[in-house]
Write a structure and sequence with these properties.
Elements: E1 2-11, E2 21-27, E3 47-49, H1 51-59, E4 65-69, H2 79-88, E5 92-97, E6 111-116, E7 140-145, H3 148-160, E8 169-173, H4 180-190, E9 195-196, H5 201-204
Parallel strand pairs: 2-4, 4-5, 5-6, 6-7, 7-8, 8-9
Antiparallel strand pairs: 1-2, 1-3
Amino acid sequence: MLRVNEIFHSIQGESTFAGWPCAFIRLTWCNLRCDYCDTVYAYEEGRDMSIDEIIDTVNGYNVRLAEITGGEPLVQDQTPELARRLLQESYKVLVETSGSLDIGVLPDECVRIVDFKTPSCGMAGKNMWRNVDFLTDNDEVKFVVRTRGDYDWAKERIAEHGLLDICPISVSPVFGELSNKTLAEWILSDSLQVRLNLQIHKYIWEPSTRGV
């Protein structure tokens, strides 16, 4: 059984898969408390569902891309089995995780989107950097930045861990706090080979809308 906050069908808003129709499985609970979190409701709200029930719901959306997210999905020990079952059902499976827990428990066939935390959110000390050892070119790393300090810190971590040689890297502005233009100008000025990652679902729908 897994504690599920919501399952919904929407346009993938982030990552290299942005723009694609996707089934989202948002799991309950998180071990972090980032102060800009936009899914606080996933900390506790949810209901218990079996993996069969989850897959039956996802199958009803008639898509081939599925994302397991949270909260923090790796808090629940059945998440790797859910990922395996979705892969067996021929889904392309994305797992978005903070990188504060061991990503090695996930099947290699998943796309592990690791959202390493920057200093301004208050959780950078929770990053588990040994997760870099599990990353392959099938995975992605994301940094969400609020300030120039966050951006410079992210650049340092990218260089320190050789991330550009491992997998695609995305850098995202905290929605409503750092302008897209400012972040784009920093990236261009530095010739930093990363993707400017915008939460496009927040431009399609009202930013606080749930289930999109």
